[in-house]
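QA checklist item 7 of 12: single-chain prediction sanity check.
[x] sequence parsed
[x] length recorded as 488
[x] structure emitted
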Amino acid sequence: MTILENRSVAVPSTAPTAVSGVFAARWRALPVLLAAMFMAMFDYFVVNVAASSLQTDLHAGEAGLELVVGGYGFAYASGLITGGRLGDLFGHRRMFVVGMLAFAVASLLCGLAWNEWALVGFRVLQGATAALMVPQVLALINTMFPITERPRAMAAFGATIGLGAVSGQVLGGALLDLDLFGWGWRTIFFINLPIGIVAALMAARWLPRHAHTHRPRLDPVGALGISAALALVLVPVTLGRPEGWPLWTWISMAAALPVLLLTLRYENRLRVRGGEPVLDITLVSDRKFLAGMVISGGYLAFFAGFMLCLTLLLQNGLGMSPLAAGLTFAPLGLSFATSSFFARKVAERIGNRVIVLGATVSLTGMLLTLGVLAWYGSAIGPLALIPGMMLVGVGNGLSIPSTIGAVLSSGIPAHQAGMAAGVLTTGQQFGNAVGATVLGTVFFGAVAGGNEIGNFVHGMEVSGYTALGIIAVVLVAAFALPRSNAVR
């Protein structure tokens, strides 16, 4: 299966069609595609700013709160490759529309949740529907744009990841502060319903329809095995500390490795027999690709955990309103948008070392944040945190939009480009889930149930050092990518 590889021909249809891989209305249709990526990332991060409200209204505990965030990310990550395969089978335009409508319905259900566990279940469903629509974005970009324009479109895709994440904090805070119709935190989910319907209608009208000359087969064993291995780690990490690390958590984590190894063995046998596995073992054995996996997953793990813990510090520790806490993230968003705009120009000069530069800047921002926390202690205010946050935004803006292109341009065979992009994107979203879960667990463990500002500052410091370790690993991995003249 390839998500990016163009294996289509034009067919008569009432919908627009692409000709020779180029779609005439491609730039008009691109914002419709990017709306899906924006919504998927917005809804991952918007619950951060609503964390305090969920604790008050739904009496959500630590495990429930982490699963509201991590459950979405897990379902999203584990379903991305299968979602891309379904697009290959039934048409990317069709699956985009179906996924967008399903995402809108799942969002409605999240807004109607009556307790924390209902919300967790609906968030898992929401993540699964996001996994249905987002892979079609990559596939359609590849189909609609000629190779000379594709880097610009992919750069916009990468920038949308960060902008959606930061907007989840800023716009989410504004929505909570407005409290439309007295809906409170439910507004952040209800707003997806009209947006999703409009986007689906525009997609049905504007996106090209393609008939595929190659119809790949599903690999349910591989998809289920990989998802199970990830779940065997994520669930005990999330629930372990609040429940006192019972025996089942250790058994679950120990079982993850043999399940993964058995799945990889099956995938390799399927490949040898001429089948189409969801994960080609020869791909993950490539050093450059493994480095890309570490960078993709590590960066989003760092970013997701950093955003969650900082939100908890601002709201629960400093007592800021959701709007004030959200606006505190606005400089981070501005710095991310600015640096992502210039990322390609920087890459033209220093090649893949743009990712090294970005990781270095992010690491510096994390060090600065830890420094002001240590200096001010319980007297910390939001203004003191902003310079470090801005450096994190600059670093992320340079690196995140560039990573997938850098890996794909570093010698990955053309027939594996789509699978590589799908696996890298999966790594990003699983990094989201793991980052929020692990750093959230570290944060709550350090706070240890205390309600004083000092407890939350301590929680931010301990989780911050964990985040610093993650970004340091990303920096080391970035040096493993070959330096090229340009990131394509």
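[x] summary fact logged: The longest strand covers residues 8-10.
[ ] second reviewer sign-off
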